[in-house]
Design goal:
Length: 331
């Protein structure tokens, strides 16, 4: 660690092999908390590079639990978090709209970090019990079209940096690693990022991984399509800028997608959307995010066609029925 820190102090960056070895050593508890804190802050000062992020990712996947779903064509839809906006569970709700449209979704998530309700919070509030049992996960995917990976059950290495990250109370590169370590290595993903720098970092990471990706950010700092502003959407085929009007929607006020003061508030809004009793603007935010997920899966579709597929899933009640069946099977 002394050698790694010396390199960073001198302004150099670490190699993919360096951060891979560092992460494995962290899981073997070879460093103390002060060393880990110094490392994280040194990386944060220069901004983690693609190679540094890939090395951490390699080691987290290597030391974690792999779920072999290679026979399936699945999508993960998740944001990095950390935007400080405290929205309701937009990615999670969108995942059930996508699954309701007939696509396979392998959703990866955790409890909220900067928001009141993360994906795991809202699912627990509905009585969902998390599992790492591969047979149960496959059954959920086969019968419902979606399964859920509660991150702590799979990315074991994260727990070894948890106390240091909590003590630092500032973002580190580990805030960005969560979406990159889905335990089934899905062939498709839609990742929301909180700013342009993160979008570029994620795009470059995905290009190196070689998967089918979509990465997006809203221009006013949301890590998802908020419809409060325009957004940039990058895939392995194109980069485009959209406004809400381009997707057939009106602009949304920030307070309309606020998640509330409690998990119960976020749950109520989540349920309202799937039950089609939420406001049109709240439903539109879900349709926009689901449509971009469908666009990653179906790159030949226009964005209008993807919105139409998402709308049919939501307004027909298929998304709600998918969610109800998921809760029944996973409780």
């Amino acid at each position: 660690m002394k050698q790694y820190l010396a390199k960073l102090i001198e302004g150099a960056t670490l190699s993919r092999e360096d951060t891979h070895d560092i992460m494995l050593n962290i899981t073997h508890e070879k460093y103390n908390n002060q060393q880990i804190a110094a490392l994280l802050m040194a990386l944060q000062m220069h901004g983690a590079t693609v190679d540094e992020m890939l090395g951490f990712r390699d080691a987290l996947l290597e030391s974690g639990k792999y779920v072999d779903l290679s026979d399936y064509e699945t999508l993960d839809i998740v944001g990095t978090g950390g935007d400080g906006k405290n929205t309701f569970n937009i990615s999670t709700c969108s995942a059930f709209v996508i699954a309701g449209a007939g696509y396979k979704v392998t959703k990866h998530g955790n409890g909220g970090s900067t928001s009141v309700s993360g994906a795991s919070n809202v699912l627990m509030e509905h009585g969902v019990k998390f599992t790492d049992d591969i047979d149960r996960l496959k059954r959920s995917l086969d019968e419902v079209g979606i399964c859920y990976f509660h991150a702590p059950l799979f990315a074991y290495g994260m727990k070894f940096v948890g106390p240091t990250r909590k003590a630092l109370q500032v973002p580190t590169c580990f805030n960005l690693l969560g979406p990159l370590v889905n335990p089934c290595h899905p062939k498709y993903s839609l990742h929301g990022t909180a700013n342009q720098a993160q979008l570029r970092l994620y795009t470059n990471i995905h290009q190196r991984i070689g998967d089918n990706y979509g990465v997006l950010t809203s221009y006013d700092g949301y890590d998802e399509i908020s419809l409060t502003s325009g957004f940039k959407f990058c895939t392995n085929l194109f980069e485009k800028v959209y406004t809400p009007k381009d997707m057939g929607f009106n602009y949304v006020r920030p307070e309309e997608i606020y998640g509330g003061a409690s998990v119960q508030d976020a749950k109520q809004l989540f349920d309202n959307v799937l039950e089609c009793t939420a406001t049109q603007n709240q439903q539109n935010v879900i349709l926009a995010n689901a449509a971009c997920g469908i666009s990653v899966l179906e790159p030949n579709l226009s964005i209008e066609e993807s919105v139409s597929i998402a709308r049919e899933s939501l307004e027909s009640g298929k998304a709600l029925q998918t969610f109800k069946k998921f809760v029944e099977l996973n409780s």
